[in-house]
Amino acid sequence: MRLAIVGATGAVGHELLGVLERSSLKFDELLLYASPRSAGSTLNFRGKEITVQVTPDGPIPADVILASAGGSVSTALAPVWVAGGALVIDNSSAFRYDDAVPLVIPEVNGSAALNHQGIIANPNCTTAIAAVALWPLHQQFGIKRMIVSTYQATSGAGAKGMEELETQTHMVLHGKEAQASVFAHPIPFNLIPHIDAFQPNGYTKEEMKVVWETRKIFGDPNLVISCTAVRIPTMRAHSEAITLEFERPATPEAARALLTQAPGVEVRDDPEAKLYPMPLTSSGKYDVEVGRIRASLAFEGGLELFVSGDQLLKGAALNAVQIAEYLQQQGALKVGALR
Ligand code: A2P
Asked: Cα–Cα distance between 257 and 262 in angstroms, integer?
């Protein structure tokens, strides 16, 4: 089995290499691709240097391609890779809303991945982080309405987003003016309620992704969801405050008991001991932290909670690798179509 990463030199690409090093996914060869800017450079994988190649315009000789080079690359090339015989697990939003493309979080709807036609979409990071925590609650109590406010790290804008936070913070601390380039405004000592493009309804595309994708992954088109997405000056974990109204009344104790058993979730909920989810503790972690679980004052029988998850891991690289692992465990990875 040949595995390829397109966008190997990016922030998610870097995490894909790390997750694959520790993964149980079986493959014989790893091919790395990026833009012409990094062609010829090498990346270390399991002690070996692998040369990064220019992403070709045509087919890629791999059975599985983990694509993380942005929407325009995936839109243009994923169909070509599929025609060449590869399965594409795509981290961009290019195909997520296509009815023929499964949108998969293995802990929630893993079996949807079995019905692919060559492309499987990896969800938006904010959606994925919330969904692993909300799915067990949805199954037990039936979410009727959810209101989400996000606190999103600069890693959501890739390696260049994190670099902008670091260099601009340095500039501000040295009395210089920060010039925004990746973000709409200077990010140090600020927060920006604007992620992705504004839509005709006044929400941003990032906010609507949470609405569209949660409905698709939960298989519940009637779920009432609204979201406010905010970029904050942290490095790599996204946090979200979530208010939930249910069909059947929930209690914090019952929710805690459910979430303690839930795969991909770590309950971190002891306010007396100052224990709750935070970017500093969830960064680098596979599980999504959930805490501040309390009865809602706004909705009877509802809950309020706070989640924090590594945007680059469960929000991107880890979920993509878990999709491939799931398919391999199910004996559903087609190998050798290209040879
Ligand atoms: P490169 O490093 O050569 O620019 P990030 O999300 O962190 O910005 O990373 C984006 C990733 O996508 C990088 O690996 C980047 O490669 C790659 N990339 C960007 N544009 C292209 C392109 N047109 N073709 C192939 N890879 C691309």
From this structure: 9
pLDDT above 50: residue 269? yes
CA 311 to ligand 1 centroid distance, Å: 18
Give the nearest ligand 1 atom to 38 CA: 3
Looking at residue 106, which CATH number applies to its domain? 3.40.50.720
Ligand 1 center to residue 92 CA distance, Å?
12
Q: Would the CB of 92 count as within 6 Å of ligand 1?
A: no
* Whole-number Cα distances in Å, 85 to 74, 93, 247, 303, 336: 16, 22, 45, 46, 9
Asked if residue 338 belongs to a domain, the reply is no
Q: How many domains does the chain have?
A: 2
Domain assignment of residue 291, given as a range = 127-311
Instruction: Identify whether residues 199 and 305 lie together within a single domain.
Output: yes
Q: How confident is the model at residue 339 (pLDDT cuts 50, 70, 90)?
A: very low
Q: Is the pLDDT of residue 231 over 70?
A: yes
User: Is 238 noted as a catalytic residue in this protein?
Assistant: yes
Residues 33 and 55 occupy one common structural domain: yes
- Pairing mode, if any, of strands 303-310 and 288-295? antiparallel
Q: What pTM does this model have? A: 0.97
Model confidence over 280-292: pLDDT tens digits? 999 999 999 999 9
Shared domain for 263 and 242, answered yes or no, is yes
Burial of 173 (0-12, 13-18, 19+ CB in 10 A): exposed
Indicate whether 336 pLDDT > 90: no
Q: Measured between alpha carbons, how far is 121 from 113 in angstroms, rounded to an integer?
A: 9
Pocket perturbation via mutation, ligand 1, pick of 35, 68, 90 by most ligand atoms within 8 A of CB: 35
